[in-house]
């Protein structure tokens, strides 16, 4: 396995080069550009980066990556990966769409697999979108939260009001509404209104202080289960839950929080995962094998591209009947018997 890391950031530090090891496809450069959350965000970028690492390890590729510290870094980091003679570049996130489109059109021989964006005006021959219908899995999370709350209120907040964030919030609120409908209950959602599409946001994905503040806002309104959709800023929500001494708990997003943020596992009912690692790894492998296509990959409950992580420490606390209902809901969503209404579904 060969590994070459380009630590590109606004500070302009010199990239570090590691000589590739012998064997494998060391002449194939598999590359990634993070969004502003960084590669160790315990969430979105970290899971996508695992996909790059898995492909590099399995196929003996050379890895290159550029970590963005702010939105202003995207064009610079994308250009750095182009200059580094990357064969495939994986931009992580909705916000990298413009930089991806510009680089892809200027460099038709390079393959791009963008995570969480499929909104180009027309398909681009060398760009494969990797998107996920997390409204489906968040529906299950909302139903779980509604069936677990003691206060009768659950809450959610986002990092930024973009479709890849609000899709989680939509699904969550719809899951609560479905619980209310089937159980004749009145569990309330604070922090997001599906009808007005207005809610609570930190304004960025980096500030844990803002995340903690938003979580406390929800708790003050009576929520005892919170659903942060804010990358690293969401960790602030988990901090608030843990500090409550058992009064407030949470559901994590993007990856299994009991693995990525294990110190908060005790307050996590479950996580809404996105199989970004598998999607990224498969796209890179396809590029290596000359089987790359620009057809969008859509992760769903049906193909296990998204879903709920294990209940871990909550496994014995969640009633067996509620677990069974959630298993049935999953089947009904897959079969189309229940439809999620969110307009930002891929």
Keywords:
346 residues; alpha/beta; six-stranded mixed beta sheet; 10 helices; 18% strand; disordered N terminus
Please provide a written account of the structure.
Helix 1 runs parallel beside helix 9 and helix 6 packs across helix 7. This protein has 346 residues and is of the alpha/beta class. The strands form 3 sheets. The chain has a 7-stranded parallel β-sheet. Strands 8-7-11-12-13-15 form a 6-stranded mixed β-sheet, sandwiched between helices. The protein has helices spanning 44-59, 74-83, 97-106, 134-148, 163-183, 208-220, 235-243, 257-260, 276-288, 320-335, and strands at 2-3, 29-33, 62-66, 88-91, 111-115, 127-132, 153-158, 188-190, 192-193, 198-199, 225-229, 249-254, 268-274, 297-299, 306-308. Helices cover 37% and strands 18% of the residues.
Give the structure's gist in a few sentences.
Helices cover 37% and strands 18% of the residues.
